[in-house]
Specification:
By secondary structure, the chain is mainly alpha-helical. Helices cover 52% and strands 5% of the residues. Among the domains are: 2-177, SMI1/KNR4-like (3-Layer(aba) Sandwich), CATH 3.40.1580.10; 329-444. Strands 1-2-3-4 form a four-stranded antiparallel beta sheet, with no helix packed on it.
Length: 444
């Protein structure tokens, strides 16, 4: 069995390279689907004797039969014992890690008071970037399992495969099949038919959710799978219904569209937000099929997050955002009015200048964050009527705690004042704060 699996992996490596000739898979540009020379049996035994361990057989066979590191998930597989971010002195100690026990329990040898590199029973076999590392469990009940660890939070994730070779071969299979491998191993493996079988055999809801979530890595699904997802949406509720709709929206958007439209008309903010998210994330690029409905939804929307998605989608659809957003500059919900001001601020300077009273009202907002967004929205507008408003703002904000003053300064830098004499001549003496800031900008 082990020899057959090693032979399969040996054949699949060049197939993976052929499937990803431009190295688009995460980390592939580093390892380029090439393995290092295999490790000799003597070298392997010396490492084991030096640390008082026996490496799990599937991993040891990989090192000695295929390669001592190289091509693999994320940035590849480390050579044995190299590039370690943890202390190898504890490799033979019992590993305290268990699936779902996050972060590591106190007194385990991995609590927050211990040194960062104390991870008993583990071998660092790869890296995923930042503080995320790939580990192999060397001791204990889960010996041979590949796990992922965030060294900052100490949170762990146990991959689904039984051993290193199963995990590695799955990576090759998914690369060859063109699956989304950006977070390889964190979703259930298998194609849509295998995942449907898992869903149907599972008694626990969390496993059914994992089966549905696993479909999100697929590049496509069969017609029968789309029918299955529609049945789950119709017959289920809660998280299962939401996940089934997400998969359908991602992989068969046209089949999900009627359900998304139905949710958009819901009286529940959570339903509308879900529909907006799925439409935003998964609708084909430059598709404007929802534009009229989104415009009609704007006056009814009271949820700040949903309004943000509405605004983003309308902007992408090429709508006149300034005209659409002006009525919401004084909305009672701060998130809605800040989003409206931000979106309107993307308009040309001349269009903003033509609607200056609305922007001035936004500048006078009692919330400093709203004032900051309004200031940033006025980039490119150098109307002298704003100077008096800026004076009042600077009087209210004597420090730059909320970045109000620094944003006013950036706007004043856009004005055409070129000399101190011009400032003295053209800026009213009552605008002491503005004149002082302009003097600093122009300099001696």
């Amino acid at each position: 069995m082990l020899k057959e699996q090693l032979d399969r992996i040996r054949r699949k490596l060049p197939q993976a390279a052929e499937a990803d000739p431009e190295y688009r898979v995460f980390g592939a540009s580093k390892h380029r689907y090439k393995l290092n020379e295999p490790l000799s049996i003597d070298e392997l035994r010396r490492f084991e004797q030096a640390h008082g361990i026996t490496l799990p057989e599937p991993y040891a066979a990989f090192l000695t039969e295929l390669g001592n590191g190289g091509a693999g998930p994320y940035y590849g597989i480390h050579p044995l014992g190299k590039k370690q971010s943890i202390d190898l002195d504890l490799i033979g100690e019992p590993s305290p890690l268990r699936p779902g026990a996050e972060p590591a329990p106190s007194g385990s040898g991995m609590d927050d008071d211990d040194d960062d590199d104390e991870y008993p029973g583990l071998l660092n076999i790869g890296e995923q970037g930042c503080t995320y590392e790939t580990m192999l469990v060397i001791t204990g009940e889960y010996r041979g399992k590949v796990i992922y660890i965030d060294l900052d939070s100490r949170r762990t994730f146990f991959t689904y495969e039984a051993n290193f070779l199963d995990w590695y071969e799955r990576w090759l299979d998914e690369t060859i099949a063109g699956y989304d491998s950006s977070w390889f191993g964190m979703r259930r493996g298998g194609d849509d038919r295998e995942l449907i079988a898992l869903y149907r055999s599972a008694a626990a809801e969390n496993v059914r959710l994992e089966a549905l979530d696993g479909m999100l890595k697929l590049p496509r699904i069969a017609d029968e799978t789309a029918d299955f997802l529609l049945r789950q949406i119709d017959e289920s509720s809660g998280d299962v219904r939401r996940m089934a709709l997400q998969v359908l929206a991602k992989l068969r958007f046209d089949r999900a569209e009627p359900l998304i439209r139905q949710l958009l008309r819901s009286g529940e903010a959570a339903d509308r937000l879900l529909a907006l998210k799925f439409a935003k994330w998964y609708m084909p690029e430059r598709d404007r099929r929802f534009t009229e409905e989104l415009i009609a939804l704007l006056p009814q929307e009271t949820d700040g997050e949903a309004f943000t998605f509405l605004a983003m989608m309308l902007e992408e659809a090429g709508a006149d955002m300034l005209a659409l957003m002006l009525p919401y500059f004084a909305h009672p919900d701060r998130k809605i009015r800040t989003q409206a001001i931000y979106q309107a601020g993307q308009a040309p300077a001349a269009a903003k200048a033509a609607n200056l009273p609305a922007f001035i009202a936004a500048l006078e907002d009692p919330d400093p964050w709203v004032t900051v967004i309004a200031l940033q929205a006025l980039r490119g507008v150098t109307d002298t009527r704003l100077l008096e408003v800026y004076e009042r703002i600077l009087e209210r904000h004597r420090t730059d705690q909320n970045y109000v003053r620094s944003n006013v300064r950036r706007l004043l830098e856009e004005y055409s004042f070129r000399s101190l004499e011009q400032v003295e001549r053209e800026v009213p003496s009552a605008l002491r704060q503005v004149k002082g800031m302009l003097r600093k900008i122009i300099g001696p």
